[in-house]
Amino acid sequence: MEHHPSASVIPLSVARNPGPLRGTIRVPGDKSISHRALMLASLAEGRTVVTGLLEGEDVLRTADAMRALGATITRETDRWVIDGKGVGALNEPADVLDMGNSGTAARLLSGILASHPITSFMTGDASLRGRPMRRVTQPLSGNGACFATRHGEKLPMAIIGTGDAAPLSYCLPVASAQVKSAILLAGLNAHGKTRVEEPVATRDHTENMLRHFGVGVDVGLTPAGGRIITLEGPTRLVARDVVVPADPSSASFPIVAASLVPGSEIRLPNVGLNPLRTGLFTTLREMGAVLDIENERVEGGEPVGDLVVRSAALRGVDVPANRAPSMIDEYPVLAVACAFATGTSRLRGLEELRVKESDRLSATVALLKANGATVRVEGDDMVIEGRGSAEGLGGGLVETRMDHRLAMSAIVFGLAAEKPVMVDDTGFINTSFPGFVSLMAALGAAL
Predict the structure, then answer these.
(1) Active-site residue, 306 included
(2) What are phi and psi of 315, to 5 degrees?
(3) Exposure of 348 by Cβ count < 10 A (0-12 exposed, 13-18 middle, 19+ buried)?
(4) pLDDT at 248 > cutoff 60
(5) Of the residues 30, 329, 403, 425, which is catalytic?
(6) Cα(440)–Cα(429) distance, rounded to whole angstroms?
(7) Which residue positions form the known binding site?
(8) What range does the record give for the signal peptide (predicted)?
(9) Averaged over 153-172, what is the pLDDT?
């Protein structure tokens, strides 16, 4: 029987909301930062206290994996306490490391394991076992580690790490924060300078948090506008407490819902505003969304602020391909917004969506088509002819393909559409956004 993140299938029918969305909700902690906080605290010397950690299934798998590698990790009321092992000192795990649905956890941890002299085995759920690992195993093999995967470079995977890791110098063929991070994490226990060149800037949470834990990370610019990131190993991480901001990717769902449901006004405190993560906020503003930021500040090396969103009439938008890395997880819910906007939207350069939890490009197109929207794919672009209203939209069944972001996007579509939207399964939303349905209900969503 295939492992499924939810205990059972939980279908949902979502009808047009009878009134506005109003109130204040705290969206969960940032998933990317939560994974990294657990991993780096486990590699640090000393005790780290993490507050605001996302307690979704993906992150809990990372906590389990780092425990299996020898870190002491305990949850105390609203904080997590981690006693680290130090770089190079991880234990060989006694059992298989099950990363659940999390591609981030699997790929980043591969980097750490590659430069430790231990043998480990990694698997995941049905969705993760279908995702390619070659993008990390191919460069990481250059440091002396060995990987054995199923056909197609897929999990389950054996990792035979090396205690004498060579530093890598790697130019990313495709912008990917996960691959960049895996190589940098492998470099922590390598002798010499690790260098990663990325064609366009991707989310830099790994670099920010490495600095937070005392690691020297240098970032330079390429003539073409990319980045070169270097660090010198082997290095020590010194325990430092971490405050995890609210996840801007999770915030995108209530933001788009409030933009589309008439008369809405919501507040989302303490949202991460890293400029390499806020492409959706920029895009929605270009569409005419009313999205204000208050009380901007820096916490744990990351910019944060409070968001205030009011409903607005949206117009079509042309999103450049170079914005994709800063909003790669937000395209499904952006596509929903575009379906209700006035005019044509073109979302460019979406090849990376084909290798997410599902083929997220085809799945997003199917979501829109099933519910009356006019959409087509031209190469790696998605083109959406907006209705300018809710009229004629909805009435279809969305196949979520075990993808939490598709499920939440479908719910947002249903709240704004003329006709109800059926979602085949919402059980695995908890992988990234525990309590999503109840939080939306607290704003007045009739779910």
Answers:
(1) no
(2) -125, 160
(3) middle
(4) yes
(5) 329
(6) 13
(7) 31-32, 36, 103, 131, 176, 178, 329, 356, 360, 405
(8) none
(9) 97
Which residue is it, tokens 């073409």? 224
pLDDT in tens, 174-231: 889 999 999 999 999 999 999 999 998 888 999 999 999 999 999 999 999 899 999 9
pLDDT in tens, 377-402: 999 999 999 999 999 999 999 999 98
Distance separating alpha carbons of residues 202 and 325, to the nearest angstrom: 5
As given in the structure block, the two tokens for residue 6 are 């939810």
Helical residues (DSSP H) of 121-191, grouped into ranges: 126-129, 134-140, 177-187
Amino acid type, 443 = L
Do residues 114 and 143 touch, judged by C-beta distance below 8 A?
Answer: yes
Percent of the chain at pLDDT > 70 equals 98
Q: Distance between CA 174 and CA 43 in Å, rounded? A: 28
Q: DSSP labels for 183-227?
A: HHHHHTTBSEEEEEEESS----HHHHHHHHTT--EEEEE-TTS-E
Q: Which of 415, 380, 404 is nearest to 102 (CA)?
A: 404
Tell me the C-alpha distance between 272 and 298, whole Å: 9
Residue 140: other Cβ atoms inside 10 A: 30
Which residue positions form the known binding site for phosphoenolpyruvate? 31, 103, 131, 178, 360, 405
**What is the DSSP-derived secondary structure letter of residue 165?**
B
* Model pTM score: 0.83
